[in-house]
Amino acid sequence: MKVWTEKKAEDFLSKEVPVAKSVLLKVPGTSQALKFRFPCVLKIISQQAVHKSDIGGVKMVHGKEEMESAFKELEGIAKRKKIKTDGILVQEFVSGRELAIGISRDPVFGHVIMFGLGGKYIETIHDVVFRVCPITENDADSMIEDMKYKKLLYGVRGEKAVNIHEIKKILVRVSKIPGKYPKMKELDINPLIANDREAKVADARIVWE
Ligand code: ADP
Ligand code: MG
Description:
This protein is 28% helix and 31% strand. With 209 residues, the protein is α+β, with helices and mostly antiparallel strands. It has 2 domains: 21-92, 2-Layer Sandwich (Dna Ligase, domain 1); 97-208, ATP-grasp fold, B domain (D-amino Acid Aminotransferase, Chain A, domain 1, 2-Layer Sandwich). A hairpin with a 4-residue loop joins strand 9 and strand 10. The longest helix is centred in the middle third of the chain and has 17 residues, at 64-80. Adenosine-5'-diphosphate binds next to strand 3, strand 5 and strand 9.
């Protein structure tokens, strides 16, 4: 079994769907990171930190000084927790609704795709739907229709609706990935961040057979 952490999984996915721009910095120093527009997000990338935010390993940064202190903080966390890191990821900030898309392998149905609300409330709210891969745009439509809190996508209290068409396109594309890569055991995109213009993968993990 092989596990791909965020950067590797996102580079792979970027051939199929939109992914938030990022660079993995392997040596300390902020010069490359400063090419990013603010706000941006810094993350500890490590095989030993599956849930980065649980260890304080995700930081939003609004300016140069904050960038430097966030770098130091993240390096400190890695040291204290004795985590071996692959580096620190600097990622474009994407604003919007947090969604989740997953692929898993069912013993009866084969690869199935999951879609639902994402982010840190995913376990609490647990509004998810499943279909067998691959799916069509009509299936993607019905997945969204089956969501309990689909209103959150259409916008509440004057919010703009997210780009539903784009989300459907992404669902269809993700559902076709296991057909090309049958050894994919699990894919976990959480979050996919969607707003009225775009939707981008902002965290991903892949488990291979
Ligand atoms: P993990 O799931 O390993 O804890 P994530 O990379 O999913 O870490 O980040 C945790 C949370 O931080 C996300 O659910 C989201 O709220 C926020 N976040 C992460 N990356 C971005 C980004 N590029 N833009 C905006 N928010 C982000
Ligand atoms: Mg995540």
